[in-house]
Every structure is written in structure tokens, then in C-alpha cells.
């Protein structure tokens, strides 16, 4: 009797073989599809029914998050008013393994009526969808991994991979950077990892002048809650920092000193443009809890280790 693991390995192997066939089949139509999308002034409207629809939603989300405006339109809903979402300037990307899905007929007809470029993805050569498409992307013939051929498995895997290939090709052409990516992914772990110091730092900083008496400096430390205060020179540059350790080292006669006499000179700092993840690493390596963000020697903010942890950077 076949074990569960044997079945799982067979499924994965079958789908991997299908992806290898897809890779080998790519050619001029794929390049044409990328060119059509790049030339569009509107969005990529992805549509598909059933499993193709679920894959289509993911493709639309991947395109939208990597710099290609896109949205998913359900073909049945399109027939009841949502065709208004597909306009001149858009590109339609329609998915159907058979290429004969009845529900896609109206959206295909809409693209033909209004001269909206249509990219069709199907697994049957000569199907209605591919015949009507401006760019026809034919999926290679590959067995479904279910063994019976009735459950979309290899076909949906190939369609999903083809969508990823389109998204990444477009992304690389547009030179889409991690900074651009973060614009569309401000939340979650990925957004946190791409956050900069400027995104998390506090612009209102504990800061005193070099000549400030320690009586006032202590009030500044207590009032802001960071456990430190920066010390600025006459030109507004960060000359030093006063921490708990500095207070303990100067405990004898502390209140008779000035900030400049107590501070640690040339403290560790970071650029506000640096990734917050780099700031966290610096704080952990140096066993400190705060960093001043400095631009051209002048403090512009302060970052506490708790700010990084709250943002999900760990």
C-alpha cells in the first residue's frame, strides 16, 4: 500500500516536472505579454473562474505589490456590472485551463469590443480564449498530480508560476527596489525589516547644552523617559550623551557638575536613513538601549530598543 509520504513525494515530483516543462515552453509570447503590460497606461485586470480565479487573485496581488497596478475581477460578477472596472488603457489577463470556461465569455467579448489588450492563459491549444487573445500563453501538456486528471494541481501550479514570472520580469524591468516594496508592505514582518530609523525614531529628543547644570540635565532625563540625554555643543552638534553609567561614575558631587563634565564624548550614533534592523543590531552588540540619529553631526531623533521591538523587528 502506498504511504502518505510516497503520495506527497509523487505529487511534488509531478508538479516539479510540470514546472520544468513550463520553463522550456516559454518564448516570444511571454516577452510579448510583458511588453503589452509595460505599454499599458491603466491596470492589469486579472480574471478566472474556480481554481483559476483563486490563482488569479494571488497573481493580481503579486503584481500590485511589486509595482504593476492590478486588480482581480470575478468573471461572473463582471457579467453583472463589474465590466465597468475594465476600461481602455487596461490589460486583461484571463486564466482558464480549458480555455472554454463559459463564465469568461463576457469579459473576453468586452475586451474585444473596446480594444482592450487581452492576454490569455490556457492549457488547450486552439481554445476559444487563446484564439481571441492578443497574446496567447499556452501551458504545456502535463499530467495533473492527482493521478486521475480531474483535480487542478499541476495546471494551477504552472499558472501561478507563470504569474510570478510575469511579476518578477516586470519588477526587474522597472528596477523595483526594497524601498519601493516597503511602500506596498508597511505592515507585517517584511515591512518591519525594511523600516528605517527615521520611520521609528522620536523627533522630540532629550537634549541639553554642554554648559547645562546637572540639576537641569537630570530633569531632562526624567521627563523624557529614555534614560539618557544628548549633549549638544554651541553649533548644535551632538558632543556627547549622559547615561545611567555616567551618573553613577560621577555620583560624588554630581549636582555641582555641568553636562559636559559628566557626558561620554563621541557616543555611538546612526543615520536616520539606516534600516531600523541595523540600529537594533548595533544596540544589541554594544549592549545599549538608545541611539541618537544624526545627520551631518546634528541630532535629528532618538531611537529606543523598545521602538524596534514594538515594530516587530527582532
Commentary on this structure:
It is elongated and about 90 Å long. A hairpin with a 5-residue loop joins β7 and β8 (238-242). It contains 15 helices and twelve strands. The model has no long low-confidence stretch (mean pLDDT 90). α1 crosses α7 and α3 (51-65) runs parallel beside α7. It is of the alpha/beta class and 314 residues long. It has two domains: 4-176, 3-Layer(aba) Sandwich (Rossmann fold), CATH 3.40.50; 197-310, CBS-domain.
CATH class of the largest domain: Alpha Beta
Number of domains: 2
Please identify the oligomeric state. single chain
Order of helices and strands: HHEHEHEHEHEHHHHEHEEHHEEHEEH
Largest sheet strand order: 2-1-3-4-5
Task: Determine the mean pLDDT.
Answer: 90
Q: Report the major sheet.
A: 5 strands, parallel
Helix count equals 15
User: Architecture of the largest domain in CATH?
Assistant: 3-Layer(aba) Sandwich
Q: Give the helix/strand class.
A: alpha/beta
Helix percent reads 40-55%
The CATH topology assignment of the largest domain is Rossmann fold
Broad shape: elongated
- The fraction of residues in strands falls at 15-25%
- pLDDT < 50 runs, ≥5 residues: none
Rg for CA atoms: 29 Å
Q: Could you give the distance between the termini?
A: 46 Å
Q: Got a strand count?
A: 12
Q: CATH H-level name of the largest domain... which superfamily?
A: Glucose-6-phosphate isomerase like protein, domain 1
